[in-house]
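Practice problem 4.
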C-alpha cells in the first residue's frame, strides 16, 4: 500500500477541519501521523480505552458493536453486529470522543481491505488547539457538531428500538 501524504487539499474535506484556511490545514497536518492496516485488522476495539481520532484516507472499514442475542439453543451469546461500512471517498472520521476524554471505545472498527489512516492523538490535538487558537476553536466547534449529530442519531435509534420493543411486548 502506498502512502497518501497528509495534505491540505484532502484535509479540507474532513469534517473536523471544515472551515480551516490552507495555513491552518497545513499546521494541523503537522500534528498527525499515518498508519497502515491490513484487511481484517482491528483498528479500534470496543471496550478498550483510546486516545486518538482516525481519518480514513484509503480503504473501507466496518463499524461493529457487540450485541447479546439468543441462540437457536435459547442460550445467550455475544455477536458482533455491523452498524455501518465507511469508505475513504468521504474521508470519514472515527474515534472522535477520544479527543475529549479517556473512556472505553463504543464500537469496534475493522479493516475490510488494506487501509491507510491519518491519526491525531488527544495530547497532540490539544497542543494544536492551544498553539493555533483560531484553528483550534474551529476544530473544536466541528468536533462538538460531529458528536452532537451522532448523539442525535443514537437518540432516534433508541427511540425506534424502544417503540418496537413496546409493540412486541404488548402482543
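Answer key:
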Amino acid at each position: 500500500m502506498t502512502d497518501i501524504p497528509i495534505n491540505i487539499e484532502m484535509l479540507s474535506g474532513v469534517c473536523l477541519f471544515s472551515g480551516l484556511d490552507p495555513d491552518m490545514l497545513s499546521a494541523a497536518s503537522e500534528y498527525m501521523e499515518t498508519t497502515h492496516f491490513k484487511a481484517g485488522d482491528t483498528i479500534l476495539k470496543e471496550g478498550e480505552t483510546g486516545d486518538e481520532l482516525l481519518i480514513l484516507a484509503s480503504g473501507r472499514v466496518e463499524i461493529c458493536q457487540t450485541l447479546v442475542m439468543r441462540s437457536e439453543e435459547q442460550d445467550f451469546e455475544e455477536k458482533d453486529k455491523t452498524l455501518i461500512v465507511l469508505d475513504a471517498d468521504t474521508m470519514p472520521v472515527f474515534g472522535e470522543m477520544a479527543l475529549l476524554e479517556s473512556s472505553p471505545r463504543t464500537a469496534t472498527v475493522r479493516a475490510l481491505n488494506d487501509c491507510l489512516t491519518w491519526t491525531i492523538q488527544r495530547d497532540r490535538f490539544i497542543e494544536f488547539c492551544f498553539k493555533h487558537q483560531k484553528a483550534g476553536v474551529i476544530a473544536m466547534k466541528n468536533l462538538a457538531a460531529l458528536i452532537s449529530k451522532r448523539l442525535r442519531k443514537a437518540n432516534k435509534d433508541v427511540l425506534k428500538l424502544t417503540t418496537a420493543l413496546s409493540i412486541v411486548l404488548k402482543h
